[in-house]
Each structure stands twice: as structure tokens, then as C-alpha cells.
Design goal:
This protein is an alpha+beta fold and 110 residues long. The protein contains two helices and five strands; from the N terminus they run E-E-H-E-H-E-E. The chain has a five-stranded mixed beta sheet with strand order 2-1-5-3-4.
């Protein structure tokens, strides 16, 4: 089973489908999104897969573990927003994520 995933860049929406059980980083890679260089290739070690969750989805996705390495990495980013920042490589895709929308941050500067 696959779900539709949306990455928003200003007024532009980049859409793809991704298999349940894969990650949001897999979806971003499928679209070759330059704002997500993911230089550690999903090891939760670089912070360059940072996105902001769309406000409509914040309460619908699996929450981040407060003691996680993901949060540690995000807190070091100048774009960190406690309510909506996530790392794509740490977000598994579930069947209820049909239409999940995230907003791109330019991680090439981090
Ligand atoms: S790809 Fe490096 S932290 Fe996600």
C-alpha cells in the first residue's frame, strides 16, 4: 500500500507516492528535492532532512520522542519550531498518512 505525500515549496506543491513502512526521506529522495540533501543518508546525524509539518497534520502524525536524537538534532537548527519541526529520515510512513503535507526548509545552508 502506498500513500500520497506532499512537499510544499512556497506556492508549489511537489507530490509523490510512497509505500507504507518507508520513510519521509524515501519520499523526498524520490522527488530529488534539493532542499533535503540528507548528507548522512538517514542516520539522524546531519539535520539536513528537516521539514515543517503542515498545521493540519501536526496532531495527526506520530509524535516525536522527547528524549530522541531527532529532537537533539532539530534543536541545533536555526529553523527549529518545537510545534512542527521533524526530520524526514525519522518519520515512518503509516497508512493513515494519505495526503500528508510538509513544508520545505532550505537545509543546504545548515
Ligand atoms: S538525513 Fe541526516 S538527519 Fe536525516
Amino acid at each position: 500500500m502506498s500513500v500520497k505525500i506532499n512537499f510544499v515549496r512556497g506556492d508549489e506543491v511537489l507530490t509523490t507516492t510512497m509505500t507504507v513502512g518507508r520513510t519521509m526521506l524515501d519520499a523526498a529522495k524520490k522527488l530529488n528535492i534539493p532542499e533535503i540533501p540528507a548528507i548522512c543518508n538517514g542516520s539522524c546525524n546531519c539535520g539536513t532532512c528537516h521539514v515543517h509539518i503542515d498545521s493540519e497534520w501536526i496532531d495527526k502524525i506520530e509524535p516525536m520522542d522527547p528524549g530522541s536524537m531527532e529532537l537533539f538534532m532539530l534543536e541545533r537548527s536555526e529553523n527549529f519550531d518545537v510545534s512542527r519541526s521533524r526530520l524526514c529520515c525519522q518519520m515512518d510512513i503509516y497508512d493513515v498518512y494519505e495526503g500528508l503535507t510538509v513544508h520545505l526548509i532550505d537545509n543546504r545552508k545548515d
